[in-house]
Amino acid sequence: MPDAVHLGSGKVRELYALDDERLLLVASDRISTFDVVLPTAIPDKGRVLTGMSAFWFARTADICANHLLALRPDGRSTECRRLEMLPIECVVRGYLSGSGWKDYRSTGEVSGHRLPAGLRESEQLPEPIFTPATKATSGHDENITRAQAAEVVGAERFAEAERLSIALYRFAAAYARERGIIIADTKFEFGVDRTGRLVLGDEALTPDSSRFWPADQYQVGTSPPSYDKQFVRDYLETLDWDKTPPAPKLPADVIARTSAKYREALVKLTGKNIA
Ligand SMILES: Nc1ncnc2c1ncn2[C@@H]1O[C@H](COP(=O)(O)OP(=O)(O)OP(=O)(O)O)[C@@H](O)[C@H]1O
Ligand SMILES: [Mg+2]
User: Fold this and answer.
1) What ligand 1 atom has the least distance to the C-alpha of 28?
2) Could you tell me if the CB of 12 is within 6 A of ligand 1?
3) Given CB 3.0 to 4.6 Å as the disulfide criterion, which of 4, 117, 224, 264 pairs with 16?
């Protein structure tokens, strides 16, 4: 890419600078599970994530400004506004699962939100809650309280990020629910543009940044299957891999079924498949 300077690699994306104000985010087909990138790619995954994020960016622009400038014809590359990213992950939970469930079980609280007693695993919360996390440069992100997050980014930015995150989640969760997908929780990344405005960046409301559950398999008190990664997790559980790198390769049928799941989620939500 002669027009771009490589800035770095995330677990899934390659980051390039186009000029002082624009970045190119290229979504690869890499898949990570338990925070470890697998040696096997999932065909079409990068294009599905890129298309799905763009779909949400278009539909939520009236809730919150976002970084999207253009999609490139390859379907996996997003030209976007360069932002100064906030050093927190803006997590919204509508259901009690994962680390939220763990924290609730031991303390009755999640990120400083006191929740009603007697909630069960995967239960829908009375209202979605904002549960920020630190952006770990390596390893797992760590949940922090709202007060800690406010200290990191400033009280005003914090309030704005919380309000926008909840509004985005509410809109997307209702939309997805009508199409057979429960968005149990999701993570947003915001940044500040040159004018000081808070802008939604990164990917948004994809199965990689969220917990997607098939609505028809949802059952309170159990841990519903992951919409996209269940076949991968099921397969990995049959091995005695200790969840540290290097990860094992995936067999062809697990790759094919997982790729189909990503595309299925895209079609369900957007009504369109990728070419
Ligand atoms: N508009 C933007 N301006 C600047 N940086 C951005 C912008 N949008 C996304 N980023 C950053 O680009 C990177 C995307 O790479 P990728 O998604 O692969 O990261 P990652 O390793 O998956 O990290 P994480 O697991 O936290 O998402 C992230 O570091 C994200 O913060
Ligand atoms: Mg990411």
Assistant:
1) 18
2) yes
3) 4
Q: What is the pLDDT of residue 260?
A: 98
80 lines ligand 1 (CB under 6 A): yes
Which tens digits make up the pLDDT trace of 194-230?
999 999 999 999 999 999 999 999 999 999 999 999 9
b/e per residue 29-66 (b: at least 16 CB within 10 A): bbbebeebbbebbbebbbbbbbbbbbbbbeebeeebbb
**pLDDT at res. 138:** 66
Atom 26 of ligand 1: nearest residue by CA position: 135
The pLDDT, as a whole number, for residue 136 is 75
Confirm or reject: Cβ of 164 under 6 Å from ligand 1. no
Distance CA 1, CA 153 (A): 35
pLDDT given for residue 3 in this prediction: 76
CB of 201 shorter than 6 A to ligand 1: yes
